[in-house]
Amino acid sequence: MPAILPPPTRIYLLRHAEAAWAQPGQKDFDRPLSQKGYADAEVVADRASDMGYKPDLVLSSTAIRCKETAEAVHRAVGEAVDLRFVDELYEATPDIYIAIIAAQSVESVMLVGHNPTMEQTLEALIGHQALSQTLPIGFPPAGLAVLDSDKTATGWRLVDFLFD
Question: Where is substrate bound in this sequence (predicted)?
Answer without folding.
Answer: 65
